[in-house]
Write a structure and sequence with these properties.
This protein has about 150 residues and is α+β, with helices and mostly antiparallel strands. About 30% of the residues lie in helices and about 20% in strands.
């Protein structure tokens, strides 16, 4: 996990807090904002988007990852998540798995009261399912179960 400067943390938290205001959360009223720093220094944001068909709702973290990938980011450096809870809320399990795809990123958890905590993807999701698991399993077309 990379060490982050206070300036980088402040930048990511500010971006996540700003995008949180755009969240579409008419059912839960639980607005979440996320900001991801990429290897080029760009910040990509996402907010949660709820749907009346609850299973179709998408979390802020996954929207931020999608924005980063769509923006051409080759490497993700860190992620911030802002909620209005005390203590700050961690990403859900699905978001933890999506973040794990990009390595052991620092995860900054923050709330609107200024509380912050820095953790990591590995701390949030130990023993994550990843590419190395697939590499141990030969799933080539000729080796698939019939």
């Amino acid at each position: 996990m990379k060490e982050l400067s206070e300036a980088v943390i402040d930048r990511l938290v500010a971006a996540a807090e700003a995008v949180r205001q755009r969240a579409h959360a008419p059912y839960s009223s639980f607005k979440v904002g996320s900001a991801i720093l990429d290897g080029d220094g760009a910040v990509h944001t996402g907010c949660n988007v709820e749907n009346a068909s609850y299973g179709l709702s998408v979390c802020a973290e996954r929207n931020a990852v999608g924005a980063a990938v769509a923006g051409g980011s080759g490497e993700l450096i860190a992620v911030a998540v802002v909620t209005d809870t005390t203590p700050p809320t961690t990403p859900c399990g699905a978001c933890r798995q999506v973040l794990a795809e990009f390595g052991d990123l620092p995860v900054i958890l923050a709330n609107l009261k200024g509380e912050r905590m820095v953790t990591s993807v590995t701390r949030l999701l130990p023993e994550a399912f990843g590419a190395e698991v697939l590499a141990r399993h030969d799933a080539s077309p000729g080796n698939r179960p019939k």
